[in-house]
Hints:
Layout: H1 2-20, H2 26-33, H3 42-61, H4 83-99, H5 103-109, H6 115-144
Amino acid sequence: MRQTVIALATGILFGAGLAVSDMVNPARVLAFLDIFGSWDPALAFVMAGAIIPSAIAYSISNRLRQPLLDGRFFIPENRIIDRKLIAGATIFGAGWGLVGYCPGPAIAGIAFGDWQPIVFSAAMLAGMFLHRFSTDLIETRKSIA
């Protein structure tokens, strides 16, 4: 229960930060990506505001046995750049560049009642399901053969 409350509070804080920084507005993100037009550097400041404390936290985590509010750290151990990573990053970047949403801002944007983040989130969930289904199907066929 404690972890659920902490996760909920963290998610609400993250969503509020996205809303306050106006990153739930796809026009703001698209303006950042429009480097040859009316470029808006606001997203760069938001990224720096996230990267700096994250880098400090990673540095501190190397010296701690466990985090304050959990039993262990959840730091990705895979450092391999493979075809799956490149394909996923490409799909993510293309979707972000086309519509101005990525998962965090889209989910936070649902709170404002607009239809666009709802449609984006539904499409994202459908894509996640399709990926899981196709991956399971491929693995099943490999094990049969």
